[in-house]
Specification:
Helix content: 40-55%
Structural class: alpha/beta
Number of domains: 3
Distance between the termini: 42 Å
CATH topology of the largest domain: Rossmann fold
CATH class of the largest domain: Alpha Beta
Largest sheet: 9 strands, mixed
């Protein structure tokens, strides 16, 4: 697409009254976004845009500078991909109401496959169970080379993004506001970490648009549209995650749910999905098997145990013990038969190498070296 035509695509995306389907009709009728933008008021009304919307659009474009908007995007390091562009995510392009403009913050030249993505969503009121389940699933999916998609909200979303980053994987945060608006503010550090080293922050909403409750369902269809499947780890029966799961089903994507304690309100959402036919998930392998994705050899067990000849026998035994479960220091002493003083030194060195991770209170897990 030439720069001149792109300018008008951006103009329509900045106007709140015209979505993907209406924009498609306008382009098909006029032949280009430029001609549609420049069309007379009576013509727009005549083709069915409606009296109120036509009046709003005319008032909007009379006060909107396309050039200033482009300059503002450039200043904020926001770039765009348009529908039909060769770099537009193939999975997202398949949905009937795919965004005609995606605003993006993050590295342009990526070295990861954006179409090998899985969405992890759930409640904002995450429990310890939900946190652990989300973390474990994300670790396994990232280890298999999948990109994690979520909405950067409190709770499950944030844990999903953070776990992908900790696993040195890639993640995409889809916002219900402009990409220059950090929402919620408490995720400011997460927002910039994703942009600088772990993936993309994207939105179909224009620069400067603040988060509103009514925008999130539209955001959710993009989360599912970008993904091979949607995993709901935890959520109440009225959780917004169920909307994302519903979009996934409509889009022909797989829906996965994690069973939880029947006494927990946060397990009701996944339970509803399971009763409706969602695939049950207790480990990342369940998702990989259903999607027929061959699990890559674990970066810890594969690379570090087979390829890395510098690991000692004791270090290998520690990694093997931690591969299937997190263990307290005392349990590691007992199971490894390594003295406490010796083990303490080994764990410190292994943590520095990224081979293991100290979860706090003396508990260790496999890292992502």
């Amino acid at each position: 697409m030439d720069k001149e035509e792109l300018k008008y695509w951006l103009g329509f995306s900045a106007f709140p009254g015209i979505g993907p389907l209406r924009f498609k009709l306008l382009r098909e009728y006029f032949g280009s976004a430029k001609k549609a933008w420049e069309a007379q008021e009576e013509v727009l009304f005549k083709i069915g845009l409606g009296e109120k919307l036509t009046a709003k659009f005319i008032a909007f474009k009379n006060h909107f500078s396309l050039e200033d908007y482009e300059a503002a995007l450039k200043k904020e390091n926001i770039w765009v991909i348009t529908l039909g562009d060769k770099n537009y995510p193939k999975l997202l392009q398949e949905i009937p109401d795919a965004p005609f403009v995606l605003y993006i913050r993050g590295e342009r030249n990526i070295d990861w496959d954006i179409d090998r993505s899985i969405a992890i969503v759930g409640t904002r009121k995450i429990t310890n169970y939900g946190r652990e389940v989300t973390r474990r699933l994300v670790e396994g999916l990232v280890d298999a080379g999948l990109t994690i998609v979520s909405g950067m909200a409190y709770g499950v979303d944030a844990v999903a993004h953070e776990s992908a980053i900790e696993g040195r994987g890639k993640t995409i945060a889809v916002l219900g506001c402009g990409v220059d608006v950090i929402h919620p503010k408490s995720n400011t550090t997460l927002y910039w970490t994703i942009i600088k080293k772990a993936g993309w922050v994207i939105s179909e909403f224009p620069m400067g648009r603040f988060a509103e409750k009514g925008l999130f369902p539209a955001r959710n269809r993009i989360i599912s549209g970008l993904s091979l499947g949607v995993v709901v780890t935890e959520g109440a029966e009225d959780s917004g995650a169920l909307i994302t799961a519903s979009y996934a089903a409509e889009q022909g994507r797989e829906v996965f749910a994690v069973p939880g304690p029947i006494t927990s309100q946060m397990s009701k959402g996944p339970t509803i999905l399971l009763k409706q036919g969602a695939k049950i998930v207790t480990e990342a392998k369940d998702i990989l098997d259903e999607l027929k994705i061959k699990k890559q050899e674990s970066r810890i067990m594969g690379k570090n145990l087979k390829d890395n000849k510098t690991l000692s026998k004791e270090e290998k035994s520690i990694l093997i013990l931690l591969q299937n479960e997190n263990l307290h220091f005392d349990d590691l002493v007992r199971k490894s038969s390594i003295s406490a003083s010796r083990l303490a030194g080994l764990l410190t060195m292994m943590e520095m190498q990224g081979l293991i991770k100290n979860l706090g209170q003396g508990v260790y897990s496999v890292g992502h070296g």
